[in-house]
Automatic annotation (TrEMBL):
The keyword Nucleotide-binding does not apply. This is AP2/ERF domain-containing protein. GO terms for cellular component: nucleus. It is found in: Nucleus. GO terms for molecular function: DNA binding; DNA-binding transcription factor activity. PROSITE patterns: AD, AP2_ERF. It comes from Pelagomonas calceolata. Residues 202-260 form the AP2/ERF domain. Residues 392-402 have a biased composition (Low complexity).
Amino acid sequence: MASNGKVAVDKLKIGATVSIKLKDSGSCEGAVYTVDPVTKTVVLFSAAEKPVTQDSRDVRLVPEHAIDSIKVVKPPDAKDKKALVAPLPAIDVAACKKRESEAYEAMEAAMAMLNPNASAAGQACFDALSKTLDCSWSGDSINVLDQVRVDAPYTEDACVSLDGNKSSLERIRKIVTAGLKKAFNAAVAEEGDGGARTASSRFWGVCWDRQHKKWKAQYSDADGKKRTIGYFDDEEEAARARDQAIRDAGLEGKRRMNAVDATGALVPKRSGAPNRLDQDRGDRSAVVAPDQAHDQTATTSKFWGVNWDKSKRRWRASYTDADGKTRFIGNFDTQEAAAHAVNAAIRRAGLEGKRRTNPVVDGQLVPRVRTKVPNGHGPAALRKKRRRDEPAAAPSPRARRR
């Protein structure tokens, strides 16, 4: 133990002024502030070489293994111990009041952004728009720059121009389309079903991560170890990423996967089924089959401009432009989303009233009415009936000579 014969490291008194000779031929001097009994480190306080304030001091930590010898320059006394305690700074009451006032103003501004009567989708839409634009609530509608009003259900079709400026209307529609989905998914994740916060997912291998505030996708590898795939804003996106990771690992049929119906949509697990990743280890041959009661096998769309794409297993949206050419808009997971895209594309092309659009009543799409023709009454059946009722034609003279 390092000592000069008079004192050891663990025998130093708090407040004593000591001079320490180091093994690297250096030295240091100061008042002992404390000694760490575990690491045998001496903490010295000394007058600051470059003082910033009147009470500025230099602090130096000297470990025992670096000490060659210790010399006590001045024994401690009550005055020295008191000098080691830095005095509390003076409280600026005016600055505290200013900070309090600013905090109240910030809180009032934040409360003005909330609408207790709006739905989760409406609040999410407002939050997405207010990040870059000046917005305010007008009842249940969102007023953006006094130029555009966004009504319930806060979709692209619900944007109404207040000044007739088409460019500003188009800009707001793009922001609503791009930002609403992400913001709404975050709001739903926070509130859960029915407004209660939930960490459980509707799909296998997906759970809510409170730290990242995103959906976490995991699976068990061939050795039974849990592997994190990533964090996602959308719950279904996380489920699809997990299923793809299982396929890439060659574990399809050996791990529980999320089933999809005939339309390519994910089928949620049964209500009350445990969402345990260890389920992968228990029954490695169990693969969830689609629930026949919820299996949507219909691939015929209920809306205009929407049809089922067999190759991509998604709903395809398209419309006919002013030149009569069919324009492809995109593929969507639901036919409702595809129908909204058709309406928006026709409106952007200036063909509203010239092309058939899907009507919206109270924010809900109205499916088109299909008139079902009874069996035996279609065009083909009528032609067959007409040929059957017509008298047989007389043979031609050439046929008689033969």
